Automatic annotation (TrEMBL):
Record GO terms (molecular function): hydrolase activity, acting on ester bonds; ligase activity
InterPro entries per record: 2H_phosphoesterase_YjcG-like, Cyclic_Pdiesterase, YjcG
NCBIfam families cross-referenced by the UniProt entry: PRK13679.1
Entry keywords, A to Z: Hydrolase, Ligase
Any one Pfam family match given in the protein's UniProt record, by short name: 2_5_RNA_ligase2
EC number(s) per entry: 3.1.-.-
Species whose genome carries this gene: Evansella caseinilytica
Sequence motif: HXTX 2, positions: 115-118
Motif HXTX 1: where in chain: 34-37
Active site: H34 (proton donor), H115 (proton acceptor)
Protein name: Putative phosphoesterase SAMN05421736_103324
Family to which this protein belongs: Belongs to the 2H phosphoesterase superfamily. YjcG family.
Length: 173
């Protein structure tokens, strides 16, 4: 089965991202706006149950942190992807490193760039046009990230939450 690890932002930030995603993101209906902490990977359900303890420990040893979106950006020309850029911080970087080591170690396809995708699989001309317009817009949103989720992919390609992990010191809502 295919799994992934991500942070889902607040409804406010998801609404901002979805205002763009519904038009520009081919995965709009498959997963809510998110910040990927671990690229998708394949493992068995038995193995993932064993790895959940590692995820609980990773969450317990990380503190809630500010998730700050401060501009629009793009991965063009590597991929035709437009995103909300998330400001890097030490806690986020360390959490991402931890979630990509131990039982989850695998060679990363790309370097970690904290972001929330708002457009992907666009034609090159459309990507350039949309991005040239968006980079002129101001965006600034800050909230506290206090949890991450282990996800799995269903047969129809949609992603759903397997389990959510609160970061150390966070209280369940």
């Amino acid at each position: 089965m295919r799994y992934g690890i991500a942070i889902f932002p607040s409804k406010t930030l998801q609404d901002i991202a979805n205002s763009y995603r519904k038009r520009y993101d081919s995965h709009y209906a498959k997963i809510p706006p998110h910040l990927t902490l671990k690229e998708s990977f394949h493992t068995t359900e038995e193995e993932i149950r064993q790895h959940v303890k590692y995820l609980r420990d990773a969450a317990a040893n990380a503190k809630p942190f500010p998730l700050e979106v401060y501009k629009f950006s793009s991965f063009y020309p590597v991929t035709n992807t437009i995103y909300l850029k998330v400001k890097e911080n030490e806690i986020l970087t360390e959490l991402q490193k931890r979630l990509n080591s131990g039982p989850f170690a695998q060679e990363a396809k790309y370097s970690f760039v904290p972001h929330i995708t708002i457009g992907q699989n666009l034609e090159s001309a459309e990507c350039a046009d949309v991005y040239s317009r968006l980079k002129l817009e101001a965006i600034h949103h800050t909230e506290t990230a206090d949890r991450f989720s282990l996800l799995y992919q269903l047969e129809n390609g949609t992603w759903t939450v397997y389990e959510t992990f609160l970061l150390g010191g966070a209280e369940n809502d």
